[in-house]
Write a structure and sequence with these properties.
Length: about 180
């Protein structure tokens, strides 16, 4: 079965009797089309530039609001710390210890509400969340965490600070 259109017709030139079909016949029409396209392009570029500026302003505003909320939640902790310092100046050791413990609990609670989680250190060393400071011979299984030098934390899925740990090395009893 032959195709419905003739191969010779596909390659024929546009009808020159129609000036819109050939821009070379009507240069004024081509110039106005180019000018219109340039105008549209300039408008789109300006719109995009305005969008970028608006998005940057919105980002700055979101950061400012987030910081403001965090600072408002930190202010009571600052007040507790000031009370603890006042107790220390008056040599009230029991009140000082209680005040510092209160500040620690308040700050830990606030950070937990913000999504901060302590990194688990029991078990095997994980280079994604642990930083090995040194390894020591131990009775524990080789490669397991035996001591925590500094706690590590995650915020959501991101490691804010890796846990700094000491890991177990192979026991040296086999050398003897």
């Amino acid at each position: 079965m032959e195709p419905k259109h003739d191969i010779e017709e596909q390659g024929r030139a546009p009808d020159v009797s129609d000036p819109a079909a050939d821009p070379a016949v009507d240069p004024a029409g081509a110039d106005s089309a180019v000018a219109e396209l340039e105008d549209r392009l300039l408008r789109m570029a300006a719109d995009f530039d305005n969008y970028k500026k608006r998005a940057a302003r919105d980002r700055e505003e979101y950061v400012t609001l987030a910081n403001e909320r965090l600072v408002k939640e930190l202010l009571p902790i600052l007040d507790d710390l000031e009370r603890a310092l006042t107790a220390a100046a008056e040599h009230e050791e029991a009140a000082l210890e209680e005040g510092v413990a209160l500040v620690h609990r308040s700050l830990a609670s606030l950070l937990e509400r913000q999504g901060l989680k302590q990194i688990e250190t029991a078990g095997k060393f994980d280079p994604h969340v642990h930083e090995a400071l040194l390894s020591q011979p131990s009775e524990a299984e080789e490669g397991s965490v035996i001591d925590v030098v500094q706690k590590g934390y995650t915020l959501g899925d991101r490691v804010v600070r890796p846990a700094r740990v000491v890991i177990a090395a192979a026991s040296q009893e086999s050398d003897g």
